Amino acid sequence: MLFLATTQSLGPWTWCWLCVLGSIGLLAMVRPKTFANLANCGGSWVDSNKYLAVLDKRIDIDQHVLPFSRVLGFAVLGSAIILGVLLSRFA
C-alpha cells in the first residue's frame, strides 16, 4: 500500500531517477573506463568542520567495485528495468 501511494505521488521523479540510474548502469557496462573516470570525479571528498570529524570517515570501495564495473552495471540496469516494469504494472 505504502509503495503504491509513494510511487503515485512521486511518479515523474521516480521515472527520472530510474532513467538516470539505468543510464549509469549502461555506461558501466559499455564503457568501464569512462565509468571509472566518472566515479573518480564524483567521489571527490568534501571536507567538513571538526564537529563532524567523528562521522566524517572515508570508506574507499573503489578498489573493490571498479574491477567489476560491468557486473555492477548489469545489476544496476537490470534493477532499473525490473523496477520500471513493476511501477508501470502497479501504478
Question: Can you walk through the features of this model?
Answer:
With 91 residues, the chain is an all-alpha fold. It has a domain at 1-31 and 67-91. It is built from five helices and no strands. Helix 2 (11-30) crosses helix 3 (32-42) and helix 2 runs antiparallel to helix 5 (69-90). The radius of gyration is 17 Å and the shape is flat. The N and C termini lie close together (11 Å). The mean pLDDT is 77.
Largest sheet: none
Q: What's the total helix number?
A: 5
> What form results from the Cα inertia axes?
flat
N- and C-termini, Cα separation: 11 Å
The amount of helix comes to: over 70%
Order of SSEs: HHHHH
Task: Say how many strands there are.
Answer: 0
Structural class, please?
mainly alpha
Output mean pLDDT. Answer: 77
- The whole-angstrom Rg is 17 Å
Q: What share of the residues does DSSP label as strand, in percent?
A: under 5%
Low confidence ranges: none
Kindly summarize this structure in a few lines:
The protein is mainly α and 91 residues long. It has helices spanning 2-9, 11-30, 32-42, 62-65, 69-90. Helix 2 packs across helix 3 (32-42) and helix 2 (11-30) packs antiparallel against helix 5 (69-90).
Fold blueprint:
Elements: H1 2-9, H2 11-30, H3 32-42, H4 62-65, H5 69-90
Helix pairs in contact: 2-3, 2-5
Give me some keywords for this one.
flat; 91 residues; mainly alpha
